[in-house]
Design brief:
The protein is mainly alpha-helical and 441 residues long. The protein has a single domain, classed as MFS general substrate transporter like domains (Growth Hormone, Chain: A, Up-down Bundle), CATH 1.20.1250. The longest helix is centred in the N-terminal third of the chain and has 30 residues. It is globular, with a radius of gyration of 22 Å.
């Protein structure tokens, strides 16, 4: 589901040239439409979560998928800038709440000791999507002219219909809860439900004892640094995601399929970098130096792309992806260690909601810069500045040790001992679309 979700979100970048030519969109208009998705997503995420609690994860997950697939399919019929903006906004409305719904679903299936690794596997969907969306979208774009329709129309229609069909398949096979799992014995069901319910009761007791408002968190200078750093990371990631196909197309003489294949290369490099940086981060236990290094690498990659030929520029964007993509999971280990347990939930939600607005700013600003200068080089130079400033900001962040936390009133909670088969090391991961928390976070 997440692979299809991410594909329908970012395939717009591959349709850019054909879509802009057919509909008459400027670079700024395209960037605004690409970014307006994130405004809708931020507005409707909380209402979607409330509806999920009412209808249940299974129904709500499939509802989200089917409706986003329908909107993605409708993108094939865009005929004006206004319709483009409206459908991108509706896509954000339809997708809002997907990730929290999945996390809620995991919380009713797995104890804490296993939930983190399950979420990490789930989040690999975004990395997988960035690799496969290029070749698939490129191949569909080459259907240009078939039955009188443009390639971008075929791309949106087929990829959108795929999500709709997958939504119905998911509803057929997705078990609502542990009790409905035919592949578990009765003893396994009762034991698993008992552990999960006990953990839920413990967390509920902690939440009722201490509450931390987002306004209080905003008064903390370290939280403001976290907000800015994650915002900057998202600006860099989504700018590269939406404009990479256009930059690769500047090489010239490439078919749409070849452009799609080449755009997957930076993300293949990025997936390897996510794994390696996570292992190194866990091994040495020092997150800030690694995050600074990654942001500097990303900034150097975009800076190099400004001054070199398009082919060498593709290599430079590989360097940028190697820096910016792993920065997100490494970043999340820092606020997790800084925030007290009762401040973690609202703190992470605040960082995620504000930081994801970088997905609106990045393509919008990139489009405006291209309209003003006639080139993407100004946008790439801007990403360099953003990356370097974020790296400098990380140096101001405290280490997140025991004495550096945002404190709340102490809570006395019962100790829960899980059965031997459920013990392990849980991860805590980002609730956004940017990456996977490394093991041991």
């Amino acid at each position: 589901m997440f692979v299809a979700n991410y594909m329908d979100r970012v395939n717009l970048g591959f349709a850019q040239d054909q879509l802009r030519a057919d509909v008459g969109l400027s670079a700024a208009a395209f960037g605004l439409g690409a970014g307006i998705f994130f405004i809708a997503y931020a507005i409707f995420e909380v209402p979607s979560n409330m509806m999920m609690e009412r209808f249940g994860a299974k129904i709500w997950l499939t509802r989200i998928m089917i409706t986003w697939g329908l909107v993605a399919t409708a993108m094939a019929f865009v005929s004006s800038a206004e319709m483009f903006y409206a459908l991108r906004f509706l896509l954000g409305v339809a997708e809002a709440g997907f990730f929290p719904a999945v996390i809620y679903y995991f919380s009713r299936w797995l104890p804490d000791s296993h939930r983190g690794r399950a979420t990490s596997i789930f989040l690999m969907g975004s990395g997988t999507a960035t690799v496969i969306v290029g070749p698939i979208s490129g191949a569909l774009l080459e259907m240009h002219g078939l039955w009188g329709h443009s390639g971008w129309q075929w791309m949106f229609f087929i990829e959108g219909v795929f999500s709709v069909v997958l939504g119905f398949v998911v509803y057929r096979f997705l078990d609502s809860g542990v009790e409905q799992a035919t592949w578990l014995t009765d003893d396994e069901k009762h034991g698993l439900v008992a552990v999960i319910d006990t953990e839920q009761e413990e967390r509920a007791g902690e939440r009722s004892t201490a509450q931390v408002s987002r306004w209080k968190l905003l008064a903390d200078p370290q939280m403001l640094l976290f907000l800015w750093i994650y915002f900057a990371i998202n600006v860099a990631l989504y700018a590269v995601t939406f404009w990479l196909p256009s930059i690769v197309d500047d090489i010239g003489g490439l078919s749409d399929f070849q452009v799609g294949l080449l755009t997957s290369v930076p993300w293949l490099c990025a997936i390897a970098a996510v794994y390696v940086s996570g292992r190194i981060s866990d091994r040495i236990g020092k997150r800030r130096p690694i995050l600074v290094t990654l942001l500097v690498i990303g900034g150097c990659g975009t800076l190099l792309a400004v001054f070199v030929s398009p082919w060498v520029g593709l290599g430079a964007l590989c360097i940028a992806a190697i820096g910016f993509k792993p920065a997100s999971p490494i970043f999340w280990t820092i606020p997790q260690s800084y925030l007290d347990a009762r401040a973690a939930a609202p703190g992470i939600a605040l960082i995620n909601s504000i930081g994801n607005l970088g997905g609106f700013v990045a393509p919008t600003a990139f489009g405006l810069i291209e309209d003003a200068t006639g080139s993407t080089k100004g946008g790439l130079a801007g990403l360099t500045v953003v990356g370097f400033l974020a790296a400098l900001s990380v140096l101001l962040v405290r280490g997140g040790g025991r004495n550096d936390r945002i404190r709340t009133r102490p809570v006395t909670a019962p100790v829960v001992t899980a059965p031997e088969t459920t013990r392990g090391t849980a991860l805590t991961v980002d609730s956004g679309t940017a990456g996977t928390a490394p093991a041991g976070a």
